Structures are given as C-alpha cells and as structure tokens.
Amino acid sequence: MRRRFRFVAGRDPRAWWRRRTVQFRTSVAAVFASLLGLAVIVSISGAFIGLLSLESVDTRLRTESRAVAANLTGGAAPGRVAGDGIRVLDTAGNPVDGRGTTALRPWEINSLKAGKGVTRSGGTGGSGAGVRWVGRVVAAPSGKPLLVLARADLSAYRDVRTTANRVLGIGSLVVALLVGTATWLAVRGALRPVRRMRLAAAQLPVGERLPLPEADDELRSLARATNDMLARRDADTERLSRFTGDAAHELRNPVGSIRAQAEVAVVHPDPELAQETLRQIEQEARRLSELVEGLLALARSDTATPPEGEPVELVAAARLVVDRSNTAGAGTRVRLTTPLSAVTVWSTPAEVATVLDNLVGNALRYARAIVRVSVLPTSRGARLLVDDDGPGIAPEHRPHVFERFYRAEPDRARDGGGSGLGLALVAEVVRRRGGSTQVGSSPEGGARFEVRLPGRGR
C-alpha cells in the first residue's frame, strides 16, 4: 500500500522560506550563489594546478632521460645507466638493462616511443598516487634503437593538489561568508529608507503625502505610487462622506413626509382624506424612488471605471428618446431637429441614453408647451442642444445647476420637481468621455442645455 507524505503547513520548507525577511533570503541566496560559483572556480583551478604539476614532472623526467640518452649514445652500457628511476628497453618493450619487466602494456610502449607521458596506477611505498613514465628513443653505438624511460612517483604531486584544493575550499567558505555578511549589511542599509517610509505612512494623517526621495530610484517610484494610492483613498473617502451626507439629507424629507401622512391617515380614518393621503404618499414614494436611483447612479459613476467606448449614432438615440417622450402622453411636445447625415459620438448607448433622458426630462419638467432637441455635427464630434420655453434659469444659478442636489427653485421640487441629481449625472457622464456641458438662454424663451461629445476616444 502506497503512502503519500505531505508537508504540514507549518513545516513546509517553501512556506518557511516565504516567511523569511527579504534581508535573510537575499543574504542566503548570495551565499549559495557565491558558493556555487567558487566551487566551479575551485574545480577548474584544481584541474589547472594538476596539469601544471604534471607538466613540471614531465619536464624533469625529460631532462633525466635526455642525460641518460646522451650516455648511451656515448657508448655506456644500458645496465650501468639504469637505476630505480631509469630503465632501458628495446623498442618492443623488452628490458635490455638486466632488470625486471616494467609491466607496461604495448599501447603504453607506443605512447612512450611517440614522446607522450604515461601514468600508471600504484606507486612506491604503497602510496597509491601513481607513477609517471616519460620515454625517449635513442640509437646505441651499434645502431640498435633503444627506449630510455624515466619514472617518477606522483605522491608529491598528489600532496600538492590536495593541499591546493583544501586551501581553495577553505578560502571559498570564507569568501562566501564575507559575501553573505556584506549582502546582509547592504540590504539592511538599502531597506532602511523603506522602513522609515513604512513608519511615516502608518502615522500619516488624512490629506498628507509621503516626501519623495531626492534620488530617482525605486524608492522614489514606490513613494510616488503610495502617494497616488493615498490620493485615491482620500478621494474615495471624500466621495463616500459626501454621498452619505447627501443621501441622509435628501432622504430625510420624503421619508418624513410619507411617515407624517401615514400617521395622519391612521389618526383620521376618513375615506376621502385617506384617498388624498395615499395619492400624496404615492407621489412622495415616486420621488423617493427617483432619488435613490439617482444616488445609486452617481455612486456608480464616482467609483466604477467607465466602460470601453464605442461609436454611437446620436441622431438615432435622440429620436428614440423623443418618440418615447411624446408617446408618454404629456402635454408638452418634444421636437427633434437633426442633419440629414448620421452623427457619431464616442461613448456607449447607455451613457447617451442617460444624457438624453435626463436633459429631456428636465426640460419637460419646466417647459410650458414645447421642448426642442437639436443634434449638430462638429469637426470633433457633435453638439446636443435641448431648449424649452419655460421660465429659464437666472444667470446667478447657471454655474451651479450641474452640482448635486442643487435646485434653482427649491420649492418646485415638492411640486413634481426633480431631486437635483439628473443634471449632475449628465455632467459626470459627459466629463468622463472628455466632453463638456453648459447652460444658457434658449431662443424659445426658456433654458438651453448644451452638451459637446467627442467623435472618437481620447
């Protein structure tokens, strides 16, 4: 039966590693990286030292074999020049110096005759370091070719290589520790401004920002991003506070009115009075519903990212709103003036419908007999004009009509007037698309609302 072993959450090495500080992880990574690099360097250096030592041995052996070859050429007997480190063989590998066999293989004999060194395992005294042979072919006075071999025990060579590897290994450990310590101190110093920035951000009051470091480095980018985040936080807090205050203020009147009228109906159970009271409650409930919908629409426009824009045919959208308004059965007629060609703006169908519905609805609320909607193309988009023949808007009220809950005539809101949110929603939607809104006098005698929408995305 196979068993599956899993790390406990608290004992998972990866989880343990992720919980360590940046300073610790960076230092450990630097130590391991330096150890890896130094290990490669030690291996290469050891091999290079070995090659140099072996070359030094070969050079010494060639010098010895050259001296022996000179004696043989001068007529010395092979037995007299041979010794522990010198052997004289024929070219077939057979001894001619009166000593025992060398145990060299035929291919090794061929390598020695070619002037190449040969290393055999074993060694004198049971050292096990190996034996190095170097050969030279010479001609005896009789003309017979002889193979002169020089031999050296490699125990000293092995000791040199072992000592070099030990010194390099210890040096690598020392260097790795120095690298880790230096990395620890460097990261600690580099993170000190981040620590100060964190402490400053924790104690930062609303409206204040972190100071930007003088150096144009990562810390400056971090401080700038943090300040942008704080600005968004303050803006969201301000919007939430304003929304809460506006909602509490505006909802108080219709809710209080509904409650008072309901209490009157309960105290005075007169059928005629109850019918009138229900009619008034229905009007206040409608006003309350419109107010809540307007507040939710403004809240969404404040916080949500605007949807991706697309080309919207403004003439067709205006015709739909005008036809719907005339079909509703109101006494005021809505007329539409458009060019013969299509007029395209950059927005979304929902946003264009919101702008048209609120502007036409506002004009119908105050017009006497006629509302005129005009669509005019421009070089950069389109102009949307909504004129009415109502009382108009006094010049001192015009700069404020697009503010939330602002009413030029507050009393009219209780007589079927708006909640003061429709025009604010229009201004917000148009602003997000890079357009503009303004209000003035209409040729019809009332107010003129003008909206400019771009023809393509910014």
TrEMBL record:
Superkingdom, natural source: Bacteria
Gene Ontology MF: a single term: phosphorelay sensor kinase activity
Segments forming domain HAMP: 188-238
TM annotation in the entry: 28-52, 167-187
Record keyword Nucleotide-binding present: no
Keywords: Kinase, Membrane, Phosphoprotein, Transferase, Transmembrane, Transmembrane helix, Two-component regulatory system
Enzyme Commission no: 2.7.13.3
A GO cellular-component term linked to this record: plasma membrane
Alphabetized InterPro entries for the sequence: HAMP_dom, HATPase_C_sf, HATPase_dom, His_kinase_dom, HisK_dim/P_dom, HisK_dim/P_sf, Sig_transdc_His_kin-like_C, TCS_sensor_his_kinase
Reaction catalyzed: ATP + protein L-histidine = ADP + protein N-phospho-L-histidine
Protein location: Cell membrane
Residues covered by region (Disordered): 434-458
Protein name, UniProt field: histidine kinase
Lineage of the species this protein comes from: Bacteria, Bacillati, Actinomycetota, Actinomycetes, Actinopolysporales
Biased composition (Basic and acidic residues): 447-458
Gene3D superfamilies per record: 1.10.287.130, 6.10.340.10, Histidine kinase-like ATPase, C-terminal domain (3.30.565.10)
Keyword Phosphoprotein: yes
UniProt domain Histidine kinase: residue ranges: 246-457
